[in-house]
Amino acid sequence: MAQWLVLCVLFTLSGCASAPPQLSPEAQIKWQGTQVIKALDTVRDMAIAANETVPPLLSTATTRKIVVYHDSALDIVHAAPSGWLRIVEVGLEELLQDLPERDKRLLGSYIGLAQGVIRGLQ
Fold first, then answer.
1. Mean pLDDT (the chain, rounded)
2. Stretch 49-56: mean pLDDT, rounded?
3. How far apart are CA 91 and CA 116, in angstroms?
4. DSSP-H helix ranges across the chain
């Protein structure tokens, strides 16, 4: 079921890979930020949901890493005037490398969704 949700979100977002042309350059950057934040929210929400199951599918330590990354990434999106897409992408790659294999398999689709959104905007 979760994989179908990811596919639906991916197809929805892939159709919106570029900002509407009538937006100002500043509004286009903000639009891109919103798209990335939505994808990162999905990763965070899935991690929290997996941690809340009984028994937990995701450790509290892994969930904490994802939540901390999410908070940092949002700060970067909101604060950096340019170059933030690459910074967020590199951080996401490092987060993925830092996760245990079991957790990578569990969250890989969601992280892949976020990576796809970021790459589609570059």
1. 86
2. 97
3. 14
4. 2-14, 25-52, 60-79, 84-98, 101-121
